[in-house]
Design a protein that fits this description.
alpha/beta, disordered C terminus, six-stranded mixed β-sheet, 14 strands, globular
């Protein structure tokens, strides 16, 4: 469990990135920090592995104050996945994944063997192991980044907008891959995004942040959608404009789901009964999230 206690971060130039932030991030769940630029979400993430230290307040992991821990040792026990994968370009895929286990003293052969198993875990063919990052697609690079983040079997996995640099189709695939991995591995995941649809799809707990790291609302996606706490949250999730209020329209061969602006939110799929009603249905299509809505 990760606990923030009255955490504030003011940078040397005077910028107040996070102001008196307190929150519990539950174990074995995905907590998503979501907000616009300047909302402090990446600063909060990086304080967990001491890439950034708070100006005041404290952060605990399983009851231990991380301010008392050696930063490099702490980081090597926490998985970290960033945008654009952050792979070492001069090292082959297998060595990128094996790097941190080897730094922690694991023999090279064992680290490489385990790296191959991790490629299996994230859905990559082992034939890619001896390629360099530049020889992979963007989606493949991100999967390698996830494999590297999992290489020391960490309890905590930090993910800083990891899917933001890939195209929408690959992004959707990677999101589903993360959900699959989480179901299998049960990590404590802290995920940063600016996209509310991604936050609602992935998050067990969603933290909507205002500028300066102020918490606007915390809850499950369903709780936030059902009861936005104020106008800022309603606007951020699209509830104020009816973009989460969906209805069906018939277009020839089937029904489509649209929001109140008339924008396509998805289509219904499943087996039709003899009466023509839809069964086993769910939203699918541009902008569809776990709730079938669009925030933009």
């Amino acid at each position: 469990m990760i606990e923030f206690h009255s955490v504030t971060k003011r940078f040397p130039d005077g910028t107040l990135a996070v102001d008196d932030f307190s929150l519990v991030l539950p174990s074995h769940k995905i907590t998503v920090f979501v907000g616009t630029s300047g909302s402090g979400k990446t600063t909060l993430l990086r304080m967990i592995n001491r890439m950034v230290d708070p100006t005041s307040g404290s952060i605990e992991i399983d009851g231990a104050d991380i301010g008392t821990l050696e930063p490099v040792k702490l980081r090597r026990g926490i998985g970290y996945v960033m945008q654009n994968s952050g792979l070492l370009p001069h090292r082959r895929v297998i060595d990128n994944v094996a790097t941190v286990p080897m730094l922690r003293g694991m023999p090279k052969k064992k680290a490489r063997d385990e790296a191959l198993h991790l490629l299996d875990t994230v859905g990559l063919d082992r034939s890619l192991a001896n390629r360099y990052p530049s020889q992979l697609s963007g989606g493949q690079q991100q999967r390698v980044g996830v494999a590297r983040g999992l290489a020391v079997n960490p309890n905590i996995l930090l993910m800083d907008e990891p899917f933001g640099a890939v195209d929408p189709i690959v992004r959707a695939e990677l999101q589903q891959e993360l959900l699959r991995l989480q179901q299998e591995l049960g990590k404590t995941v802290v995920f940063v995004t600016h996209d509310i649809d991604e936050a609602f799809l992935l998050g067990d707990q969603v933290v909507i942040l205002r500028t300066g790291g102020k918490v606007a609302q915390v809850g499950s996606p369903a709780e936030i959608l059902a009861n936005p706490i104020d106008e800022f949250v309603a606007t951020f999730v699209g509830a104020d404009r009816g973009k989460r209020s969906l209805h069906l329209e018939n277009h020839g061969d089937g029904d489509i789901v649209v929001d109140e602006t008339g924008r396509l939110a998805g289509v219904l799929v499943g087996e039709r009964s003899s009466a023509g009603s839809e069964s086993k249905a769910g939203p699918r299509g541009p902008g569809a999230s776990a709730q079938g809505g669009d925030s933009r």
